[in-house]
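Hi all, posting the design record for the shared folder.

TITLE: backbone redesign
STEP: 1 of 1
STRUCTURE INPUT:
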């Protein structure tokens, strides 16, 4: 278990606690990235809805 790192739980929180502001900035960056991806994904979805309407018209 020590090899897997189970014997080092007290060391991990000490290393994780200082970079909290960095985590907040990363979360904000991720939110901005998600908003960009949503804006990029919306047009393709609209085009996908238009595609199924085309084949019956051609038939």
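Okay, here is what came back for every position:
SEQUENCE:
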């Amino acid at each position: 278990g020590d090899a897997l790192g189970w014997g080092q739980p007290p060391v991990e929180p000490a290393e994780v606690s200082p970079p909290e502001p960095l985590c907040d900035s990363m979360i904000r960056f991720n939110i901005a990235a998600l908003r960009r991806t949503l804006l990029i994904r919306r047009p393709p979805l609209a085009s996908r809805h238009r595609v199924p309407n085309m084949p019956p018209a051609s038939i």
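COMMENT: Residues 20-50 form the longest helix (31 residues).
Let me know if anyone wants the other runs.
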